Amino acid sequence: MDSAVNPAHYTQGEIPCIDAMISAFGPQQVELFCRINAFKYIWRSTDHVAGCEQNVQKAMWFLNKSIQLNNANTQATPYT
After folding, report:
1. Phi, psi of 6 (to 5 degrees)
2. How far is Cα 77 from Cα 21, in angstroms, rounded to an integer?
3. Which of 5, 17, 38, 52 has the most CB atoms less than 10 A away?
4. 3-class secondary structure, 11
5. Under DSSP, is residue 61 helix (H, G, I), strand (E, B) or coil?
6. Helical ranges in the chain per DSSP H
7. Measured over all CA atoms, what is the biggest interatomic distance in the chain, rounded to whole angstroms?
8. Which of 54, 60, 17, 22 has its CA nearest to residue 39?
9. What's the pLDDT tens digit per position in 58-67?
10. DSSP letter, residue 46
């Protein structure tokens, strides 16, 4: 899935960087990282050389990943 939003250089071998991060730090920490990273892309969206549309698309990718991780974590560890 090579694109400007999720380029191939974020993968080493067959392992996407985000999956390695989940393995190393856990889904809760990566979910927080995704929200923070989305903030960064929105913050710079009007001034970055890549332009507003690409930066907002990247923010959306990270927000969607955050939702995915949050849903997986909620299902894996329900509140008591």
Report:
1. -135, 75
2. 20
3. 38
4. strand
5. helix
6. 17-25, 27-43, 52-76
7. 47
8. 60
9. 999 999 999 9
10. T
Residue 54: Cβ-neighbour burial (10 angstroms; 0-12, 13-18, 19+)? middle
How far is 65 from 45, CA to CA, in rounded Å? Answer: 19
Of 45, 63, 62, nearest to 54 (Cα)?
A: 45
- For residue 36, the model assigns a pLDDT of 98
pLDDT at 5: 73
Q: What is the residue extent of each domain of the chain?
A: 23-75
Tally the residues of the chain: 80
Q: Which phi and psi angles does 78 have, rounded to 5°?
A: -65, 150
- Give CA separation, 9 vs 2, 16, 64, in Å: 8, 9, 20
Sign of CA dihedral 10, 66, 37, 46: positive
* Global pTM value: 0.81
